[in-house]
Write a structure and sequence with these properties.
311 residues, 12 strands, alpha+beta, 10-stranded antiparallel beta barrel, two-stranded antiparallel sheet, globular
Length: 311
């Protein structure tokens, strides 16, 4: 019983921290609050979960605070009923619901959830499977288009067998996003492979300043995130595990992207540690996003939280 109470207390703390952070974000307009609150309210709490399990949360902030993303996931038995209710309130299109049902039947995920994000003056939401799935199964879900062939070539060239995460948006102009673990036994080897992936998918490798910064990472657990829309790869992200906040800020400087002065305060308010830092390209746009595992707020004047491993 005590463990269930602790899990519930943590879940409520995470929800409160996320809600409080909104008031500090200038991109959040008043009309967006109802959508974000609705998402929070339709995530299960530990009493809704089998065996009183906790719910996993991840929050993302763009370094310039122009992007925010929240995600939650866990056992399908706890999440699927709440996701169904949430998407009904979102007026999910039949075609979007069919995609979710078909892919769910095909992949039979063990970790499912929903997410919501704000960028470009819009609220975007969707669902994700957070457990690994064999690449051939995921590949078969895609139609015949340019992105599929480009991704298949990269996967075959690097002998990759599985997808670490599959995400899908709903609504207008939907996109899919897949994440791969970068192969290689060392940080140097993985950084070389990651840079080459950017060259293949965006036409330019990572700048030397960025690769030098990434080589300071202690653990070889890099990832590659690819967003597909309309048959094209429209965004490429390189995920670095557990960077300290000061190193993440230096990476922003290397990438020549802005860092909002309120970033440190917001990261502290969300609590937890930095799970991953993502350098992303979408056409001519470049950004750095910081992924945090929200928890208890960091105490004032405390040392920076120890970086945690990526999911």
């Amino acid at each position: 019983m005590a463990s269930l109470e602790n899990a519930l207390q943590k879940a409520l703390s995470v929800r409160l921290n996320l809600q409080i952070s909104l008031s500090q974000l200038p991109i959040i307009e008043e009309w967006m609050d109802i959508h974000l609150d609705r998402w929070l309210e339709h995530n299960p709490t530990p009493p809704d979960m089998p065996n009183g399990e906790g719910v996993e949360f991840l929050a993302m902030l763009g370094s310039d605070l122009r992007r925010v993303w929240w995600g939650a996931w866990g056992d399908p038995r706890g999440f699927v009923p709440r996701i169904a209710d949430y998407f009904k309130l979102c007026n999910i299109a039949k075609s979007d619901a069919q995609v979710l049902d078909q892919i769910g039947e095909q992949l039979e995920p063990r970790l499912v959830g929903s997410w919501i994000g704000v960028w470009g003056g819009k609220v975007t939401t969707g669902w994700h499977f957070m457990d690994p799935h064999e690449w051939p199964k995921v590949e078969s879900m895609f139609g015949t288009h340019e992105a599929k062939y480009a991704i298949k070539k990269w996967v075959d060239d690097h002998h990759i067998t599985r997808v670490e995460r599959f995400s899908q948006s709903i609504g207008d102009s939907p996109f899919s996003e897949i994440e791969f673990a970068i192969p290689g036994d060392s940080v140097d080897a993985q950084v070389v492979t990651l840079s080459a992936a950017f060259d293949q998918f965006t036409g330019a490798p990572l700048d030397a300043a960025i690769t030098d910064r990434l080589r300071t990472v202690q653990v070889p657990q890099f990832g590659l995130s690819l967003r597909i829309r309309g048959g094209h790869v429209v965004r490429v992200g390189g995920l670095a595990p557990g960077l300290a906040e000061s190193v993440a800020v230096e990476l922003c400087n290397d990438a020549k992207v802005g860092v909002d002065p309120k970033l440190t305060k917001l990261l502290g308010a969300l609590g937890g540690g930095i799970a991953r830092v993502e350098y992303g390209r979408a056409g001519e746009r470049v950004g750095v996003d910081i992924h945090v595992e929200p928890g208890e707020p960091a105490p004032k004047h405390a040392p920076a939280p120890a970086p945690s491993e990526a999911n």
